Amino acid sequence: MHAWPASEVPALPGQGRDLRIHDTATGGLVILDPGPVARIYVCGITPYDATHIGHAATYNAFDLVQRVWLDTKRQVHYVQNVTDVDDPLLERAQRDGIDWAALADQETALFREDMTALRMLPPRQYIGAVEAIPGIVPLVERLRDMGAAYELEGDVYFSVESDPHFGKVSGLDAAAMRLLSAERGGDPDRPGKKNPLDPMLWMAAREGEPSWDGGSLGRGRPGWHIECVAIALDHLGMGFDIQGGGSDLAFPHHEMGASHAQALTGEFPMAKAYVHAGMVALDGEKMSKSKGNLVFVSKLRRDGVDPAAIRLALLSHHYRADWEWTDQVLQDAVTRLGRWRAAVSRPDGPPAEALVEEIREALANDLDAPAALTAVDRWTARQEQHGGTDEGAPGVVSRAVDALLGVAL
């Protein structure tokens, strides 16, 4: 599966700072020093309703991570998946009377278009669950053969008790886990499971649903968590720098994935930091496919909204915050974009070197994009009020905002 084209990232003078970022597993900031190649895995979409603002906010956060690392002169090895077969996708395809694979292709193509318009840097590998099945099957067989998985009526489940570190990603107790498991795709009440929290690794073929050859597992399809584990281990290996996604993935997805990988390899941890973006609401409720209260990037673009304004709207909220999308949020972003573009269109302006360092410091401090925007606002206000004599300043600001914030002025 191919990703989307990369926008050019302008080179800036000097060098960025190492990233300090909030790690869900420890509950505090960690300083990441990845070495010459930073490794990040971000969980992708299930392609049946792309791309809503909640998606965009999540991928914007991890785009900032890439930009901070690139500014430190590192390379970035970024991997993202597409869950192109799963129950919600099959249910939507059946509801709409469309082939499930065609629906997945259609929505994935739309996602690529939106990511390109928003100037999100693409992953080096963009892997669908279906194409990953040949790598998933051997992992499930290994877990079964080593006693970390078991069969139940043809399905294969992972035993969470096989990983002594289970629970260390989310930090939740068993009761909270059980509630979230039921809400987020698990089946804690299924009779015969060794532990209600045990997640499915391989679902035996069901009538009327797609299935693949699973070798000794029989025909079926993979569970949600093992999909990402197989892709991450194949392309990044254990101990990569960041496992990322929305905050609703901390449990069960990232918790289970970490345990799968740790049981398979005997190593801990799967990732050095688990980083989660906040949820976006609309009309007082979390924006979600199940509620149908979605604002789509593609619809905004069709309505003539500049993608740079959409990106500024996302950047105006801290990535870990839960926030609400409103018409005012978008209008404020449109106004800000207009002011910034007018400011950098002048032939000279106030010196900009200190501004570049302010943006760098803000982003290195747990991706504090709102602080970075405020710094650019201050420079813009000086330009509007007094102008300046530095002929290179507007160009420096334009390149810094592009390179570090992904906003083309």
Automatic annotation (TrEMBL):
HAMAP family reported in the protein's UniProt record: MshC
Protein name listed in UniProt: L-cysteine:1D-myo-inositol 2-amino-2-deoxy-alpha-D-glucopyranoside ligase
Gene designation: mshC
Residue numbers covered by motif 'KMSKS' region: 286-290
Keyword Amino-acid biosynthesis included in the entry's annotation: no
Catalysis performed (reactions): 1D-myo-inositol 2-amino-2-deoxy-alpha-D-glucopyranoside + L-cysteine + ATP = 1D-myo-inositol 2-(L-cysteinylamino)-2-deoxy-alpha-D-glucopyranoside + AMP + diphosphate + H(+)
GO CC, alphabetical: cytosol
GO molecular function: ATP binding; cysteine-glucosaminylinositol ligase activity; cysteine-tRNA ligase activity; zinc ion binding
Oligomer status and interactors: Monomer.
Domain of life per record: Bacteria
Function text: Catalyzes the ATP-dependent condensation of GlcN-Ins and L-cysteine to form L-Cys-GlcN-Ins.
EC nos: 6.3.1.13
Binding site for L-cysteinyl-5'-AMP: 43-46, 58, 81-83, 224, 246-248, 280
Binding site for Zn(2+): 43, 228, 253
Record bears the keyword Nucleotide-binding: yes
Organism: Streptomyces coeruleorubidus
Biological process, per Gene Ontology: cysteinyl-tRNA aminoacylation; mycothiol biosynthetic process
Cofactor note: Binds 1 zinc ion per subunit.
PANTHER family, per the entry: CYSTEINE--TRNA LIGASE, CYTOPLASMIC, CYSTEINYL-TRNA SYNTHETASE
Domain spans labelled tRNA synthetases class I catalytic: 39-334
Positions of short motif 'ERGGDP' region: 183-188
Entry's family note: Belongs to the class-I aminoacyl-tRNA synthetase family. MshC subfamily.
Top-level taxonomy: Bacteria, Bacillati, Actinomycetota, Actinomycetes, Kitasatosporales
